[in-house]
Design brief:
Blueprint: E1 15-17, H1 27-31, E2 37-38, E3 46-47, H2 56-60, E4 66-68, E5 81-86, H3 100-110, E6 113-115, H4 118-135, E7 145-146, H5 151-160, H6 174-188, E8 197-203, H7 208-213, E9 225-228, H8 229-238, H9 254-257, H10 264-267, E10 274-278, H11 280-291, E11 300-304, H12 320-331, H13 342-350, H14 364-369, H15 372-388, H16 402-410, H17 420-423
Parallel strand pairs: 5-6, 5-8, 7-11, 8-9, 10-11
Antiparallel strand pairs: 1-4, 2-3
This protein binds iron/sulfur cluster (2 copies).
């Protein structure tokens, strides 16, 4: 389980390096897309820079030293009732012979209360379509709009592209819409006491916990915790129906099942000038272009930090391309039809039911660094340090490259003498 009801809400990161397991091999340092990791003196890796909780270091560490904040066994013996709402990515993890209804049935044997998210994915798409249509072409509309669904992308924008925070769509994510509605229904029907349960999201994503404990669009998240798909995989697999058993037909549809693959969110909307990009390096490249004023003709960007979309999330079990094949084959068995009452959804939209409570802000610690005068001085200092460096990009200093090393020296995190090549020149 990543996080839970009782997690440290002041923590800014949910990906951690276990110093006892780390052997200083530098693989994570080389892989980190935001150059946040350092391995000084070839000892242990430390996260010192802007970590966006993308989980790339979890994927590449061969020693299992990097983890998302975890209390893995909690979900087996919860202190409180657990209401489960699973990401559709879970449907991609067991191969094409296992259908969503089988997985729902297995979840119901594993947890007490289980809900399918399809209805809320469909509602979200309806609200988004209305919002795009109504704000299109308006003077004050921020285009392109950016999907708020991937918490890594949201954090990346907040830290590195704060000018684009205004482009993040104000429609609440399906997982928050679902959790809010589940809580309302449970309390209305007196099913459980408010203090006795929590709504948990089964997720492929190492960053989900930070979006729950430090939400960017709400004062408090409606979710109480997140459980990694890798943590529930074995128990769900054990509880899958046998070959002769049948499960109640899933309320899902092909569009909802496809949400986990790159392009799934925009495919579930009607026709429009939308674009999907996946993978952190590509996402950064496109955000840079948007910041430069390009792509104004695109109405909506779906960015996913993980390559191929959330099916490539660090807390998944199946290979991302196998998972994609499974999604494509399974979704063919389902219809495209959304079971939504459009007029009802539109009324809820007019009442503001879909909208976020607050606009996302640049984190304080990022703001502090980015005062213009300070930043100009810093950049001058970095350029000066760079002039003296050999530019071999060897990483022996414990920084991922010469530029990062120069930044570390400028920020007081490293000393020039730590560059071995400079010493032996
Ligand atoms: S989670 Fe991503 S950004 Fe954070 S240290 Fe690991 S690789 Fe870098
Ligand atoms: S693409 Fe999906 S799994 Fe990956 S970081 Fe974003 S939300 Fe999480």
């Amino acid at each position: 389980m990543i996080g839970g009801k009782v997690t440290d809400k002041t923590s800014l990161h949910y990906v951690h390096i276990d110093e006892k397991r780390c052997v200083g091999c530098v693989l994570c340092m080389k892989a980190c897309p935001t150059k946040a990791i350092r391995v000084r003196g070839l000892k242990v890796a430390k996260i010192v820079g802007t970590c966006v909780d993308c989980g790339e270091c979890i994927r590449v560490c061969p020693h299992g030293a990097v983890k998302a904040t975890t209390t893995r066994d909690d979900y087996k013996a919860p202190a409180a009732n657990m209401v489960i709402s699973a990401s559709p990515v879970l449907y991609s993890q067991f191969g094409q012979d296992v259908l969503p209804e089988d997985i729902q049935a297995a979840l119901q044997k594993t947890f007490e209360y289980v809900f399918d998210q399809t209805y809320f994915l469909d509602l979200y798409n309806v609200a988004l379509e209305i919002f795009i249509k109504e704000t299109s072409g308006k003077e004050d509309s921020s285009r392109p709009l950016i999907s708020p669904v991937c918490p890594v992308v949201n954090r990346l924008i907040a830290y590195r592209f704060p000018a684009l925070l205004k482009n993040l769509s104000p429609i609440l994510t399906p997982r928050e819409l679902a959790a809010r509605e589940l809580k309302r229904r449970i309390e209305k029907d007196d099913l459980l006491k408010k203090t006795d349960y929590g709504v948990y999201h089964i997720t492929p994503c190492s960053a989900k916990m930070i979006s729950i404990n430090n939400p960017m669009f709400l004062k408090t998240s409606y979710l109480d915790g997140a459980i990694g798909i890798n943590d529930v995989f074995e128990s769900v697999k054990r509880n899958l129906p046998g070959p002769d058993e049948t499960s109640p037909v899933s309320p899902s549809n092909s569009l909802a099942i496809g949400w986990g693959i790159s392009g799934g969110e925009i495919a579930a909307m009607g026709e429009g000038n939308y674009m999907a990009v996946s993978g952190l390096p590509e996402t950064i490249r496109y955000l840079e272009k948007i910041e430069m004023g390009l792509f104004r003709d695109i109405e909506y960007f779906e960015f996913r930090a993980c390559l191929e979309g959330c099916i490539g999330g660090p807390l998944t079990v199946a290979d991302r391309y196998e998972a994609k094949r499974t999604v494509m084959n399974i979704s063919r068995m389902f219809s495209h039809d959304k079971r939504i009452r459009y007029a009802q959804a539109e009324r809820a939209y007019r009442k503001g039911w879909f909208f976020s409570e607050k606009r996302p802000q640049q984190p304080e610690e990022a703001g502090k660094r980015s005062g213009i005068i300070h930043e100009i001085e810093r950049q001058e200092k970095i350029a000066k340090i760079m002039e003296g460096l050999p530019g071999k990009e060897c990483g022996f200093c414990g920084s991922p490259g010469c530029r990062s090393f120069a930044e570390d020296v400028a920020d007081g995190r490293a000393m020039l003498e730590e560059c071995i090549r400079m010493r032996i020149r």
